[in-house]
Write a structure and sequence with these properties.
42% of the residues lie in helices and 13% in strands. It is of the alpha+beta class. It folds into 2 domains: 57-171 and 328-367, D-Maltodextrin-Binding Protein, domain 2 (3-Layer(aba) Sandwich), CATH 3.40.190.10; 176-325 and 401-445, 3-Layer(aba) Sandwich (D-Maltodextrin-Binding Protein, domain 2). The strands form 3 sheets. Strands 7, 8, 9, 10, 12 and 13 form a 6-stranded mixed β-sheet that branches. A 5-stranded mixed β-sheet has the order 2-1-3-11-6. Helix 4 (74-87) links the parallel strand 1 and strand 2. Helix 11 (225-235) crosses helix 12 and helix 19 runs antiparallel to helix 20 (424-445). The longest helix is centred in the last third of the chain and has 22 residues, at 424-445.
Length: 448
């Protein structure tokens, strides 16, 4: 899936991928068309009389469709777009594929200028931010018309699309961290089953070292180190954020234990001391290391690599099953609502894509809809075992700016701790104070 550097391609790499500090919140509030942050926080609105009818019978219309599928998932999305266009003579969807790291900066400004997408895909943890900016509009009527309900989704995926009692996203998939392992290394070490808990995981690392793989599990200092930290904190029974977005709790006992475990992998010699961004994945792909934790978006890249590998859920190092996850959601912009034809056509496009979400499983993702997963579309696919644990997947709270706050505070703290530059408790304590201050400012700026 590495057609571009991974740090630039995936959304949570950098602060630029949606950071909302107080300054940014105030500056971007104008993108919503309101003159104050409070007005921008009011969210968008669909045009009057825009009820979804299930089909588009108007004049020929062209939809600008923005997404960030620049890797191995890109061809699958392009196939779906081509199929949609072939079936709808009066709608032409024109994709614009942008690196995720640039996507969340470009969309608000482009929509405000009337030069952005009519419809698009963004990550679940960005919906509240863009709803507060008045970039995207509510989709409650569309969800109702599609007969989508909480019964067909996990609670967290369904609820995270709601901001201030209105739905802004139609979930397409979920994607989580996974454990990838080199099957040849495992065979040489006599490991017959993927480890599932801390005891079996540490035993596997010891067996791999004894088999000659001196550093079998490289601990990244950057991406996806913070996603590992979040997963481990949840496994320990902690929660990194207050549900209402008012505070961070990175330095809870559960969070400190999570990051201390990550640092211990380096201290015990299972990993080099300074693993640069993406180095752990490249090393795994090249057979230099035996295990890596990364997102399921790597499936197609590894399938094409020719190496001997398999995957499983990340082990439960703590007391409870939990793993970081995210979800791609379809959205409609405020820009599209200026044209009734585009608005109706955009709804038809999202409706059709939601119905085809089973085909999207070929991209390596897990369909968000339970009914689609139950249809057998995942049979024989690598991500099938992870889909069985979808109830254990955890998501960031649906509050504006949380992704950016995390990038500015938590990610540097995790990095400095894994490098050994700062004691874990000190680094997480500073990050907690900084994040809480920024989250309080964001709540005030966006009206809660």
């Amino acid at each position: 899936m590495r057609t571009a550097p991974q740090w630039n391609r995936h959304p949570r790499r950098r602060l630029a991928a949606g950071a909302i500090t107080l300054t940014a919140a105030l500056a971007l509030a104008g993108c919503g068309g309101g003159s104050t942050p409070e007005e921008a926080a009011g969210g968008g609105a669909a045009p009057e009389g825009g009820d979804f009818t299930g089909e588009y019978t108007g004049p020929d219309v062209e939809l600008s469709y923005w997404n960030g599928f620049t890797g191995g998932d890109g061809p699958f999305m392009q196939e779906l777009v081509d199929e949609f266009n072939a079936e709808h003579e009066n709608i032409t969807v024109v994709p614009n594929t942008i690196q995720w790291a640039d996507f969340y900066q470009r969309v608000p400004a482009a929509v405000n200028a009337g030069e952005g997408p009519d419809v698009g895909v963004m990550h679940l943890d960005q919906l509240a931010t863009n709803a507060a900016r008045n970039v995207i509009v509510p989709l409650d009527d569309l969800a109702e018309a599609l007969e989508l309900s909480a019964d067909d989704f996990t609670d967290e995926v369904w609820d995270a699309g709601v901001y201030q009692d209105q739905r802004y996203g139609i979930p397409l998939d979920v994607h989580s961290l996974a454990m990838y392992y080199n099957t040849e290394h495992f065979e040489a070490a006599g490991i017959t089953e993927p480890p599932t808990d801390e005891a079996s995981f540490m035993a596997a690392l010891d067996a791999l070292q004894e088999a000659g793989y001196s550093q079998p599990f490289w601990m990244p200092t950057m991406w996806p180190a913070h996603l590992m930290y979040l997963s481990l904190t949840w496994q320990n029974g902690g929660d990194p954020y207050a549900a209402d977005g008012s505070a961070a709790a990175f330095d809870s006992p559960e969070g400190i234990a999570a990051l201390e475990w990550q640092r211990s992998i380096v201290e015990q010699g299972y990993s080099p001391s300074n693993v640069a961004i993406d180095s752990q994945y490249v090393a795994f792909k090249n057979g230099e290391t035996s295990i890596t934790w990364d997102g399921i978006w790597q499936i197609n890249d590894l399938e094409a690599s020719g190496m001997a590998w398999d995957m499983a859920p990340i082990p439960t190092i703590g007391d409870s099953d939990a793993v970081w996850a995210n979800s791609h959601n379809f959205f409609i912009t405020r820009q599209a609502t200026d044209d009734q034809d585009k608005y109706q056509a955009a709804q038809v496009f999202i409706s059709w894509m939601s119905e085809q979400s089973g085909d999207w499983a070929g991209s390596g993702m897990i369909p968000a809809r339970q009914s689609v997963r139950d249809s057998g579309v995942l049979d024989g696919l690598k991500q099938a075992p992870l889909a069985e644990q979808i109830d254990q997947m955890r998501f960031l709270p649906a509050v504006p700016g949380v992704g950016g706050v995390q990038a500015e505070t938590l990610e540097p703290a995790v990095s400095s701790s894994i490098l050994g530059d700062d004691p874990v408790a000190d680094a997480l304590g500073r990050a907690t104070s900084q994040a809480t201050e920024l989250m309080e400012q964001n709540l005030e700026s966006f009206g809660g």
